[in-house]
Automatic annotation (TrEMBL):
Stored PANTHER family: HEAT SHOCK FACTOR PROTEIN 5, HEAT SHOCK TRANSCRIPTION FACTOR
The protein's name in its UniProt record: HSF5 protein
Gene3D superfamilies: Winged helix-like DNA-binding domain superfamily/Winged helix DNA-binding domain
Protein's gene: Hsf5
Pfam families: HSF_DNA-bind
Alphabetical keyword list: DNA-binding, Nucleus
UniProt keyword DNA-binding, yes or no: yes
Protein localization: Nucleus
Keyword Cell membrane annotated: no
InterPro entries membership: HSF_DNA-bd, WH-like_DNA-bd_sf, WH_DNA-bd_sf
Length: 141
């Protein structure tokens, strides 16, 4: 699922375009770097399996919105620490986006089941005050 992919990306030491915010309650996405690193924009992704079925960053933002992530205004880079120390905190590649979801937290993969795609049926359940959950992949049980 999309939230699971996001979780694996933000916690991967190999991925530099997606990282936790200082409090571990949201994530920063460096758009330019994300496009190069994960969408294969400007690169020939020969033989590599595509992580996302799109090369359009706007489609990723739409997915985030569909799964209940909210965009926050970005504070100056000096106030971000990220999940891994990096000497330079400037992100010259492109716009930096800050997204937040109440169930996407550092060190809490158990909350991922609460992140649901906002389909018409799920929205009706939520509006009625019912809980909407999904199963965690077996490796996170």
């Amino acid at each position: 699922t999309f939230p699971m992919k996001l979780w694996l990306l933000v916690n991967s030491p190999c991925v530099h375009s997606v990282r936790w915010d200082a409090r571990g309650e949201g994530l920063f996405i460096d758009q330019g770097l994300f496009e190069q690193e994960l969408l294969g924009v400007g690169l020939s992704a020969a033989g590599e399996e595509e992580l996302f079925k799109t090369k359009n960053f706007g489609s990723i933002v739409r997915q985030l919105n569909l799964y209940g992530f909210h965009k926050l205004t970005v504070s100056p880079p000096s106030s971000t620490i990220g999940s891994r120390p990096r000497g330079d905190t400037s992100y010259a590649d492109g716009p930096l986006h800050h997204f937040w979801n109440p169930h996407f937290r550092y060190g809490r993969p158990d909350l991922l089941v609460k992140i649901k795609r906002l389909t018409k049926a799920n929205k009706e359940k939520l509006d009625a005050g019912l809980e909407v959950t999904s199963r965690l992949p077996d490796d996170l049980q």
